[in-house]
Design brief:
By secondary structure, the protein is an all-alpha fold. About 60% of the residues lie in helices and about 0% in strands. It is rod-shaped.
């Protein structure tokens, strides 16, 4: 449907409407000018009704579009909140899985010598009182 506010009133006094005016003049007994005025008034009243209906329909469509937009925004907000909750849950889960470090002491000293330790194989041989060669200690 086209916008009725763009419609132009026809020229009811012109030759195109002469036959209709003549029939109305004969039926009502008024002048051609009065019939043309009544036709113009009738067209104007109908035009105003069409414009009002058109405007009402546009407002309803705008309200429907706004409602759809609000629903879409609410749905997107719900999805965003769900994603944030999922991300927070994953972050907490990864925090729980991380190994905890002991406290840090700035006054603690670290030795500069490494104490030699025999291999596990050598310790096992000693515990079983088995023969052990010297090269197993180092």
């Amino acid at each position: 449907m086209a916008d009725p506010s763009l419609e132009v009133c026809p020229d009811f006094a012109g030759d195109l409407y002469a036959a209709i005016r003549l029939d109305l003049v004969n039926a009502t007994g008024t002048t051609h000018q009065a019939v043309a005025e009544r036709l113009k008034d009738a067209w104007t009243a109908g035009h105003e009704l069409r414009v009002l209906e058109w405007n009402r329909q546009r407002e309803e469509e705008a309200q429907a579009e706004a409602e759809v937009e609000r629903a879409r925004a609410a749905h997107e907000e719900e999805e965003r909140r769900a994603k944030e909750a999922e991300a927070e849950k994953e972050r907490l889960e990864s925090e729980r899985k991380k190994p905890k470090m002991n406290g840090f002491s700035a006054n603690a000293t670290v030795g500069d010598a490494i104490t030699p330790r025999p291999s596990q194989y050598a310790i096992q041989k000693l515990n079983n009182f088995d023969r052990l060669y010297c090269h197993f200690y180092g």
